[in-house]
Amino acid sequence: MSGKIVIDVERCKGCGLCVWACPKNSIVISKTSNKAGYFPAEAVDSDCTGCATCATVCPEAIIEVYRDDAKSESGNKSEPSLVEEKV
After folding, report:
1. Residue 55 — very low, low, confident or very high, per pLDDT cuts 50/70/90?
2. What is each CA distance from 9 to 2, 61, 77, 78, 79, in whole angstroms?
């Protein structure tokens, strides 16, 4: 299973909770500030599994998680699907 995260960097305040929570070290704090002056979290190439722990702990709810584990009816991999967490 592989995953991908999308972080809204303009709304991120750089609290670092997602960085701390990620079991695969798929998120780092940027060295470049956003328009609000915060240093936002950003996704890095890694072994993201799409576990959605980062999205669960994000106080701003600005992380979307996509997972590639779904298969189509023909048995081929389908497009990545958005993981919906119940918070």
Report:
1. very high
2. 22, 12, 29, 27, 24
Q: How far apart are CA 65 and CA 82, in angstroms?
A: 6
Task: Please list, in sequence order, all residues whose beta carbon lies within 8 angstroms of the beta carbon of residue 16, skipping any fewer than 6 positions away.
Answer: 29, 41
- For residue 57, give both structure tokens: 């702990």
Q: Are 8 and 53 in contact (CB under 8 A)?
A: no
Rounded to an integer, what distance in angstroms lies between the CA atom of residue 28 and that of residue 59? 17
How far apart CA 24 and CA 12 sit, in angstroms, is 20
**What was the pLDDT predicted at 45?**
79
Domain architecture of the chain: domains with CATH: 3-82 (3.30.70.20)
Least Cα distance to 66 among 43, 33, 36, 37 occurs for 43
Q: Are strands 3-7 and 27-29 parallel, antiparallel or unpaired?
A: unpaired
Percent of the chain with pLDDT over 70: 78
